[in-house]
Write a structure and sequence with these properties.
single chain, seven-stranded parallel sheet, 43% strand, 11% helix, mainly beta, 23-stranded parallel sheet
Length: 727
């Protein structure tokens, strides 16, 4: 019994120990949990304070970027733009921030300290680049880069720098100088009639003068009638295809839209423009100078009138900017830039032909005789360019002007040729007796078939290589669409002697018994005439000014609504009239008669011959007040025009340069570039490029290293930088 009680006392002692241990564990666990809960709350408050302080610092960063971009003190504590230095203790939310801006134009550093009411603080530092965002892929490697449609250089156009063409590359004659290497990548591609100071790479090379080496396909067919000063490399590999440059369109559109939106058409006034998005057309009026301060995106077309100027702001320094025309994903023929100019009258490029092979030219205020290669009567002439003129006459006579002299050409006919007209150096037509039609293809004259065989044709006009009209006996009218001739319904049976087109949808024809016809783009119709005398020639300068002449002193004039008679100062039968401008008209006729209209009166001019004069033709004069496009004046700054027009004709080219352009880069990402005037650009790139007159391209090697920006340096319009927490 005593052992049992002793055992009980022992058991109770162990129980008390266990209970005490358990109580200790519980107390320890409770203390641990209480410490954990307290610690968690402390961390939570700490994190909240940290986040709130960072938020304040970020507000300070955003405010600083805003003030660096601002053009006025929009609550920036007295400094803004490039002069902004930060702000002290700006209250915001449950605290304040202090910002400090340091650095110079190339780089700015913003330090922002956010502080809470409990004095908890955090610091953020942001480094901003002073260089604007740019599109480095725009630097071109060629003076001229052409797509699969190739290029045509006419007259005395020239290129200085490397050239690449994805299609046939044709020059007008050996007056076209290419100073640099040229490559044609089309299989069986043709390089023809070019003067090349450098190497030539093309499967076929024809009638070229190459000062460097020639790389071509096979010995017999790869090269013909060409001179090569360097080495011949036969069976050469066709040059590789090179993709056309395509700028980052999305980048430029976004950059332009950053500056705002102008709905509809916009006429620029003297001042600044850009960055901006214009949903309609943009016109720069006569003599207006627009300073570009950022990219310009125009949905429609850009037209530059006489004396207008596009120039970069001088702050662009080594940078360039862009004018973007059209919708890249949906190019339209109207998406184009037109740099146009009203040209002045110039009698110095006027010629006259007549009986006995007479050829007259206007020199220093006097008409003088030129050496003629024929004594046959010449009935018609067309001076298409300063180095390309034609005249035709009796016995199938054809003579050509090459810029230096007239020479006889081999004719496929002995029939009288009464009219000639040229659209390009590779496309000219002459018509005459017995329904004769002959065509010049750039190499030879050859026969074509008339829809009215045997019926005499008296007049022809090649408005374009794919739009040629001819008229003749019995009132016949025929049209060539680029492939063949077809008959067109005529409203008269009177003999028609001449036809001329102002546009594809506006033309005139005249003939016997005072007949006058007008074409509206669809049909020919008769127009009331003030004379019943035979009319032999018609010429038109605009929709409201045209002249026609004929037998028995007949001179009539169109004013836009009706024809009326003009008084002749002499008695003669007039054979031809040529309008180069509304104030520059030449009329020729029997017994050496020459008349000139200067805009106010008709006067007779002295002729060196008394023989009948049958035809006159002249070139339009120079541009009196040319538009211009150029950079900021810095040697490495460039203004680039990127056009998405899909037009195919000269006047509907994506880029149409008339004259006066002295700089800039021109890209037609869809369509062609037509460079017609006496001016020089730095680079052109398009699916097809046409250069005429004395147009030139002079490549600047700096273009390969140029940087095109979305805003002028120092404007701080759009910035990017690295954010990090200062330790």
């Amino acid at each position: 019994m005593r052992r049992s009680r002793q055992q009980e006392r022992t058991d109770r002692g162990f129980a008390i120990v266990i209970i005490m241990v358990l109580l200790g564990i519980i107390i320890a666990f409770t203390l641990t949990m209480t410490g954990y809960i307290y610690s968690t709350k402390k961390v939570k408050y700490y994190v909240q304070d940290e986040q709130n302080a960072i938020n304040l610092a970020e507000i300070g960063i955003s405010k600083a970027i805003f003030c660096l971009n601002s053009e006025y003190d929009a609550g920036c504590d007295g400094t803004w733009g490039e002069n902004y230095v930060g702000e002290t203790k700006v209250v915001a939310g449950h605290g304040d921030y202090v910002t400090t801006v340091t650095g110079e134009s190339g780089e700015r550093v913003i330090e922002s300290v956010g502080t809470l009411l409990n004095e908890s603080s955090r610091t953020i530092v942001v480094t901003l680049s002073g260089d604007p965002l740019s599109d480095p892929a725009l630097a071109p490697a060629f003076a001229l880069q052409v797509g699969a449609s190739g290029a045509r250089l006419e007259d005395k156009s020239s290129i200085t720098g490397p050239v690449y063409s994805g299609g046939d590359f044709r020059c007008d004659s050996h007056y076209n100088d290419i100073t640099g290497e040229i490559s044609v990548s089309e299989t069986n591609g043709l390089l023809s009639r070019c003067d090349i100071t450098g190497d030539a790479h093309s499967d076929r090379i024809w009638r070229c003068d190459v000062t460097g080496d020639a790389y071509y396909d096979v010995p017999v067919f790869g090269i013909s009638q060409s001179t090569v000063s360097g080495t011949h490399y036969t069976e050469s590999t066709t040059p590789e295809d090179i993709l056309m440059p395509v700028p980052d369109i999305d980048f430029w559109e976004a950059s332009a839209e950053y500056g705002g939106l102008i709905e509809g058409d916009h006429i620029a006034t003297t001042g600044n423009l850009g960055p901006i998005h214009i949903t309609g057309d943009l016109t720069v009026p006569t003599s207006v100078t627009v300073t570009i301060q950022g990219p310009i995106w125009v949905d429609g077309a850009v037209t530059m009138e006489d004396g207008s100027v596009f120039q970069l702001d001088p702050t662009f320094d080594k940078y360039g900017s862009v004018i973007l025309i059209g919708d890249y994903d949906n190019p339209q023929p109207g998406n184009q830039i037109i740099v146009d100019c009203e040209e002045t009258a110039s009698s110095s490029n006027v010629n006259i032909v007549g009986d006995l092979g007479n050829i007259l030219t206007y020199d220093s205020g006097n008409w003088v005789s030129e050496t003629s290669p024929t004594a046959e009567a010449l009935w018609s002439m067309h001076m298409r360019a300063s180095v390309d003129g034609w005249a035709v006459g009796n016995a199938g006579t054809i003579i050509h002007w090459d810029g230096t002299s007239w020479s006889s050409e081999t004719s496929p006919t002995s029939n009288l040729l009464g009219s000639v007209s040229a659209a390009t150096n590779f496309a000219a037509w002459a018509v005459g007796a017995a329904g004769t039609i002959v065509r010049w293809d750039g190499f030879n004259w050859q026969y074509e078939t008339s829809p009215y065989p045997g019926t005499a044709l008296y007049g022809v006009h090649a408005y374009a290589a794919t739009d040629i009209w001819a008229v003749g006996a019995g009132g016949i009218i025929i049209h060539r669409d680029g492939t063949s001739w077809s008959a067109v319904t005529s409203p008269t049976s009177n003999l028609l002697r001449d036809v001329t087109m102002l546009s594809e949808a506006d033309g005139w024809a005249v003939g016997d018994s005072g007949t006058i016809l007008h074409y509206n783009g669809t049909d020919w119709s008769s127009v009331s005439s003030p004379t019943s005398n035979n009319l032999r020639a018609v010429s038109v300068a605009s929709g409201s000014d045209a002249w026609a002449v004929g037998d028995s002193d007949t001179i009539i004039r169109w004013n836009g609504s009706s024809w009326s008679t003009e008084t002749s100062p002499v008695s003669a039968s007039f054979r031809d009239v040529d309008m180069r401008a509304v104030d520059d008209v030449t009329i020729v006729g029997t017994v050496g008669t020459i008349l000139n209209w200067d805009g106010s009166s008709l006067t007779q001019q002295t002729s060196p011959v008394a023989d009948d004069l049958n035809s006159t033709s002249g070139l339009i004069g120079s541009c009196a007040n040319p538009p211009n496009i150029y950079g900021s004046g810095h040697g490495s700054s460039y203004l680039m025009v990127v056009s998405n027009g899909s037009g195919t004709g000269v006047d509907t080219a994506a880029v149409y340069l008339q004259t006066g352009v002295t700089g800039g880069l021109f890209l037609a990402t869809h369509g062609r570039i037509s460079h017609l005037g006496d001016s020089s650009v730095s680079h052109m790139s398009g699916e097809f490029i046409y250069m005429a007159s004395t147009a030139s391209v002079v490549f600047d090697a700096n273009l390969e290293h140029s940087v095109f920006s979305n805003s002028a340096p120092g404007s701080w319009r759009i910035k990017a930088g690295t954010w990090y927490e200062k330790e």
